[in-house]
Amino acid sequence: MILEVNNITKRFGGLVAVDDVTFSVREREIFGIIGPNGAGKTTLFNVITGFYKPDKGRIIFQGNDITGKKPNEIAKMGLLRTWQIVRPFLGMKVIDNLLVPMYVKKGIIGGITEREAIERANEILEFVGLSHRRDFLAEALPQGERKRLEIARALASEPKLLMLDEPAGGLTPTEMDEVMDVVRKLRESGITVVVIEHNMRVVMGICERIMALNFGRKIAEGTPEEIGRNEEVIKAYLGERFHVGG
Ligand SMILES: Nc1ncnc2c1ncn2[C@@H]1O[C@H](COP(=O)(O)OP(=O)(O)OP(=O)(O)O)[C@@H](O)[C@H]1O
């Protein structure tokens, strides 16, 4: 297991946003987290990536206890996230959006020449299908391409595990297909992916296993087929129209 999340609880005052949640993610898996609005998905992401400290529980990443570590320490270990609201450096060129995180990371582990950095940035742009946008300002990109730029920026920091917060949110069906292709390629290139996503076509289409949350609690975990026919999930979230079992 690359990530083990054990009995995580996170409270905001009297509200239990994440309630004793346990799950683990296998290496090179695409693992989905679903649940209605307010179920605790984003809070769980924030706890795992160090933006919030949990009230209870442990998080183990590649055998190391990362509970309570700072986001930049966790990122340096190879656990990166993207945000629901994309936030590239809009006034910067697409390529520079990748060079900045690269210099930040490589500066720490011993330097990289400009030529190496540019080469690597070009590879990443190719990977996410944004080579043609290399010298555009990020603000000129449509939403679907911004989402892929966000993934590209995370790739510049060489993650082992990438946590994607609603990568298909606000996208057209064609843009969604392009993001789904990129996520599958991530896995093929050896990166483990944990993804929060509301769009069921996307979740069911890319995830090998899915966990469902409701009111902060884990209510189910399984393959897309198992989740699609789980009565509690259907009641909480999916609605009859997504009933797979008939
Ligand atoms: N910083 C905070 N302070 C107080 N309450 C918060 C905070 N962040 C989240 N909450 C509350 O915690 C609960 C879980 O919220 P969270 O954003 O994790 O849900 P979610 O499943 O990600 O929802 P969505 O699908 O709408 O993004 C909600 O009731 C929310 O109002």
TrEMBL record:
> What GO terms fall under cellular component here?
plasma membrane
Q: Which InterPro entries did the record assign?
A: AAA+_ATPase, ABC_AA/LPS_Transport, ABC_transporter-like_ATP-bd, BCA_ABC_TP_C, P-loop_NTPase
Q: Does the keyword Transport apply?
A: yes
Residue ranges of domain ABC transporter in the record: 3-240
Q: Among its keywords, does the record have ATP-binding?
A: yes
A GO BP entry is: amino acid transport
| UniProt-recorded Gene Ontology molecular function terms | ATP binding; ATP hydrolysis activity
Q: Which keywords does the record carry? A: Amino-acid transport, ATP-binding, Nucleotide-binding, Transport
Q: One Pfam family name from the record?
A: ABC_tran
Q: What does this gene product do?
A: Probable component of a branched-chain amino-acid transport system.
What PANTHER family does the record point to?
BRANCHED-CHAIN AMINO ACID TRANSPORT ATP-BINDING PROTEIN LIVG-RELATED, CONSERVED COMPONENT OF ABC TRANSPORTER FOR NATURAL AMINO ACIDS-RELATED
The protein's name is: Probable branched-chain amino acid transport ATP-binding protein LivG
Q: What is the lineage of its organism?
A: Archaea, Thermoproteota, Candidatus Korarchaeia, Candidatus Korarchaeales, Candidatus Korarchaeaceae
